[in-house]
Amino acid sequence: MDLRHLRYFAAVAEERHFGRAAERLHMAQPPLSQAVRQLEGELGVELLHRTTRRVDLTDAGRAYLERVHAILAGVDEAADLARRVADGVTGRLAIGCVGSATYSLLPAISRSLSAELPGIDFSFRGEMLAPDQADALRSGAVDVALLRPQAADSSLVAHRLRRDRLVVALPAGHRLAGRRQVRAADLAGTDLIVHSADRRSVMYHVVVRVLRGAGVEPRIRHEVGETSTLVTLVAGGLGAAVVPGPVAALTLPGVVYRPLVRPAAGVDLAVAHRADRSEPHLVRAVEVIRRVARVPAAARTATAGTPPPVGAG
C-alpha cells in the first residue's frame, strides 16, 4: 500500500474537504480524489461520505483513520530516529577504562559525553587491564576503550591521547617517602606491588623494564588486577608501586606519591575501538574523548612536586 495514499486520506479526513486538503498537501484536487478512491478500492471499504460541500467519515473511515494516525506517527518517528543515528546523536556505547584513566579522566569524559551527546546511552567499566579491554572490544562487550597500547593489532584502531609520567606510590612511613623524587635505583630491595603478569598487564612489563634498565631486579611481593587494590595495599604498608602519574588522583591515607626520575619514564594512554566500527555515534564519542584528554593532566590531578606531610595521600 502506498504510504502517500494514507497521508492523503488523513488530510482529507482531518479537513473534511477535498479542496482544503489539496491546498494543505500542495497538490491538485483531482489527483487527490483519485488517490483516495484507489485506497478505498484496495481496501474494498467506503471510508468517506462525499457531498458537494463537505466530506464525512464512515464508521469504517473513523476506525481506519485512528490506525492511519498511529502508522504515520510510527513512520515519522522511525525517520527521525534514522536521521539522529546518521547524525551520531543517538545510540548506545559501553566504554572500558584502565585504572588510572578511571580516576583521572573518566569523570571529565562522562560529564562531556553526557552534555554533548545526551541522546546516547553510555555505560562505563572501570579498572580494566589493557588485554581484557582488547578482548572486550573484539567481542563487542565494550565499544570504546581507554587503554595502555600493546603491540600493534590490525583488528583495532588506537589514537594516542597522552603520555603519562611514572610516579612511585609509597607507604607514608617508607624510607623514601620524605624525598622530593625517587630514582629507579632507589627501589633496590624494596617490596613491590604490581599489576598481574598472568593477566598480561602492560604496566607489569613497563615496571620490570624500567627497573631492570636501572640495574634493579624487581622484588615483587604482590600482583593485583585492579589499581584501587594496588594503592590500598600500598596504604597498608605491604610495598611500593610504580604507577602512571594520574593514579595520584586516587588519594588514600597512608600513601604518598613521588615522581620517578633517572630514568624519567612514561607510558602512553590511547583510546581504541574495533577497526570495522565506524558508526557516527561512536566516531563522535571518540572525538569528545580525544578533546577532553588534551586538557593538561595538571588541571585534573596533582602529581606531587613538593612532598606533602607524612601520611598525606
TrEMBL record:
This is LysR family transcriptional regulator. Keywords: DNA-binding, Transcription, Transcription regulation. Belongs to the LysR transcriptional regulatory family. InterPro entries: LysR_HTH_N, LysR_subst-bd, WH-like_DNA-bd_sf, WH_DNA-bd_sf. Transmembrane segments: none annotated. The keyword Metal-binding does not apply. GO terms for cellular component: protein-DNA complex. Residues 1-58 form the HTH lysR-type domain. It comes from the Bacteria. Pfam families: HTH_1, LysR_substrate. One of its GO terms (molecular function) is DNA-binding transcription factor activity. Gene3D superfamilies: Periplasmic binding protein-like II, Winged helix-like DNA-binding domain superfamily/Winged helix DNA-binding domain. CDD domains: PBP2_LTTR_aromatics_like. The keyword Transcription regulation applies.
